[in-house]
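Changelog entry

Holo records now carry the ligand SMILES as an explicit input line rather than a separate metadata file. Below, a converted record for asparagine, shown in the new format.
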Amino acid sequence: MAHIKILATGGTIASRTGRDGAASAGRAEDIAASLSGRHSYSVQDITNANSFRLRLADVRIIAEAVRAAVADDAVDGVVVTHGTDTMEETAFALDLVHDSPKPVVFTGAQRPADSPVADGPANLEEAVTAAAAAGLRNAGVLISFAGQVQSARGARKVHTVAANPFAGGVEVAHFVAGTLHVTAIPVRPAPLPMPGEDFDNARVEIIVCALGTGPELFNHAVHTGASAIVLAGTGMGNAGEGFAEAVQDAVHGGCPVVLCTRVPAGPVVPAYGAGGGLDLVRAGAIPGGDLAPVQARMLAALLTSLPATQEEILQALTTGTSRSR
Ligand SMILES: NC(=O)C[C@H](N)C(=O)O
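Structure line, unchanged by the conversion:
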């Protein structure tokens, strides 16, 4: 029997539906009441918010709580219950700094706790099983939903209501008739330093390119003090007229630009001139590899809140920050 620390942050798994819609209300002990007892556990309420309302400061506080939990010799693994809307962002931020072999498994629910077909209990039971699994040691931070366990790196919410809304991470395990089958351990780069209080105020904007859009919003973000910009280009990382010049001005002004793609899967490949990805990189944009824009934003927020240089940002981006293609 393992001992698992359950950290609750709110979300649909803790929600009940009233006249004003679903609201996160449940506490960790309420959520954990459904557990089978196959493993022992202790609970801690970190916050109680739907994840679309979380702030970077909450991510730092969750990271500190996980760091304290894995430092406890009595704890074999950690489960974090969290809303699904921004789970991929919090989980990835924690994976960047996770330097313990103990599994950290995020889970949640797609239906509220008071639904007659609530999915939270099953997801929590599976997440505790994964967090207790010796075979998942050194796997980093994971997301467990509806029978599948995948890496936080590369995971993204791809469906608003599906039982398992996440895809894109490396599958590390799955459940068959309640039994966990471990299938892979992701290759992970060296952990980055924990976020400090400067992380709370990092302002990294995501600018999405579309047909005919210009660099006006990009320039506004730079001129109003963004810490960094994530440019979600089209295709393999391309952008329209004026962006290469805007990137050059931003970088020369000390604002790093990470080039990602709005395309749900696949890497950035700076191949096109005529203002495309090759020109953007030549103007100083850092290719974001396989990172989705929202996960590149968490990496840039962490690095720019530390005494990181452009070179360190490039190094962090190019060392294994990958998602399944
Ligand atoms: N399924 C969920 O948890 C969605 C909810 N809106 C949240 O992110 O908190």
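Spot-checked after migration. The chain has two domains: 3-187, 202-320. Residues 56-71 form the longest helix (16 residues).
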